[in-house]
Structures are given as C-alpha cells and as structure tokens.
Amino acid sequence: MPARARSRPSPLRRRLRHHLVGLALALAAGARAAVPDAPPAADAPAPAGTPSTPSPAPSHLPDCSRPLTLGLHEHGLLYASQTGEGIDKDVADEMSRRSGCRLTLTMLPRARIWQLIESGALDFTLSGITNAQRERFAAFAWYVSNKYYLLARRDAGVHSVAEFRARHGLRVGLIRSFRYGDQANAFVDALESEDRVSYAGSLDPLYTILLDDGIQAMIIEPFDFPVIAGAQLKAQTTILDFGDPPVPHGLVMSRKSLAPAQQQAWRDVIQSMRNDGTMRRIFEKYFPLDLARQMTQF
C-alpha cells in the first residue's frame, strides 16, 4: 500500500504555494494588468462547518482481493514525476489508506490512460472530466470543480476568445485527449477543423512552443498557475475566459474492470474524504485557502 502523503509541506509545495498566494493577493487588489494572474474561482458557498473529527469510513468498503491500478499523468500541480508529488498522488495515497486496498500507481500519457480505462486494463485515474463518449466506458466520483482558460501571447493582439477564433493565422496548442467546458470544446473543435491545432503529450512542450511563437495560445486551468507565474510567461501572455462554468473533475473508474457495486464503494470512499474535510485539506497544501475551498465545495 503506498505511503500516506506527508502532512508537512515539502519545499516544492511551499514554493508553489508562495506563487499562488501572490496571485491571489494580486487579484484581490484588482491587479489584472498585463500579467497572466490567476482568474478568480467561481463563487461557492462556504461550508456550514468543518467536522472536528474524521467521519466514519464508508459502510461498504471496496474489494481489495486483487491489486488495483491507477494511472497518473504529469500536469502542473496534479503530479510531477521529478518529485513524485502532487494533488493526484495525495488523493491516491488517501484512497489506499482509507480503503485498505493496494493501488499500483503508474505515470502514463493522458491519451494512453483513457485507452486503458476503456479496455479495462487500468482501473482508475484521477482529475478526469466526463463527456458522452467517456460515459460509455467510465464511471466517475466528483471531488473538485474548476474552470479552463485560454493563455494567449500578448503580441497576438487579441482580447477575447472569439477574436482569437476569428484570426485564422493563429494556432492553439493542446494535450492529446483533453476535453474542457462546452464553449472551450466548441473553440477547440472549430480550430481543429481548420487545421489550427498543434498537439503534445504534456504541457511542458507547449510552454516552449508558445514562447517560441510556434503556437499563439494554449488552454490552462488552476493546476497550471504556478508555471505561468514565471517571469517569462507572465510578461508575454495574458489570460482569456471562455465563459464556461466550473467543470467537475474526479475519480475515473473503468466500467469494464469494476462492477457497479465496486464503483459505488469507491464513490463512498471519495465522498467520505469530502465529508470529513480531507479532500479540502489536500488542496490547501497547493492553493490558497479560499481557492481550495471554492474548488472542493460545490
């Protein structure tokens, strides 16, 4: 069973948190100027109260009679292979601790993860969103909700997503197999039909291509804010809002490898993590408190 995430933040998490606190303070002061500061999260009601003691474990625990597999993908605050840290790793560790099941974690490209979930060769992944196609082969347990944004080069001279879409010489960079909110998906599909999309397996190559002007925009979310707070990206880019509401993300379960009763047992595990504040506390390691609460209380 994987070791439980350490309660004491690592130097990496302290640096990332420092960046995010700075972003939040700039937003609070109305500093939206010529820097790609993190857009405000959607309003969400504050929780009525945080339990002082953990809630009981789920009444129907998952079947741990075989090793279970979970795919991680490299993506900003979600997971960094260089350090072995991230939100998804912490969530996976808590799932293992709480259920008593052994989870074998493997880092894979996101497109490959979805293929393996569909075939039943992989049991789980994390921080996934749904659509009609995925509903046919995957089940979900939601625990966080956030928005997507377009990170555009300043010298592209656009001030809205619609303006970018209308400029046929501009290209966008995407990670293969990623989907977003409705308006963001419509934007991506339109540019793809015009052969204006460049694909990569992760975000890092896209940042490099963006700075080299090989693409003029890419799609980001709050998990990527620490990177875009870096001096070079901050000076050369701006954030544009698609206008989509926050999109639920969560545990993705293979319908082929997990029976409906087991899917519900894992939903209960995730819900117990939400109920007793554990999920919120995981996000508080990486985000300012208000943003962590808004992302996990929906």
Walkthrough of the structure:
The structure is a single chain. By secondary structure, the protein is α/β, with parallel strands linked by helices. Helices cover 38% and strands 18% of the residues. The protein contains twelve helices and ten strands. The chain has a five-stranded mixed beta sheet with strand order 2-1-3-10-4. Helix 6 (182-193) links the parallel strand 6 and strand 7. Helix 2 crosses helix 10 (260-275). The longest helix is centred in the N-terminal third of the chain and has 18 residues, at 11-28. The protein is globular, with a radius of gyration of 19 Å.
Helix and strand layout, with pairings?
Elements: H1 11-28, E1 68-72, H2 87-99, E2 103-107, H3 110-119, E3 124-128, H4 132-135, E4 138-146, E5 149-153, H5 161-166, E6 172-175, H6 182-193, E7 197-200, H7 203-211, E8 217-220, H8 225-228, H9 231-236, E9 237-241, E10 247-254, H10 260-275, H11 278-284, H12 289-296
Parallel strand pairs: 1-2, 1-3, 6-7, 6-8
Antiparallel strand pairs: 3-10, 4-10, 5-8, 5-9
Helix pairs in contact: 2-10, 11-12
For the sheet with most strands, the description reads: 5 strands, mixed
Radius of gyration: 19 Å
Strand content: 15-25%
What string, H for helix and E for strand, traces the elements in order?
A: HEHEHEHEEHEHEHEHHEEHHH
First-residue to last-residue Cα separation: 30 Å
- Record field, number of beta strands: 10
User: In terms of per-residue confidence, which ranges show pLDDT below 50 for 5 or more consecutive residues?
Assistant: 1-9, 11-16, 18-56
Indicate the overall shape: globular
Strand ordering within the main sheet:
2-1-3-10-4
Task: Count every helix, treating DSSP H or I runs of 4 or more residues as helices.
Answer: 12
Helix-residue proportion? 25-40%
Average pLDDT reading: 85
Structural class: alpha/beta
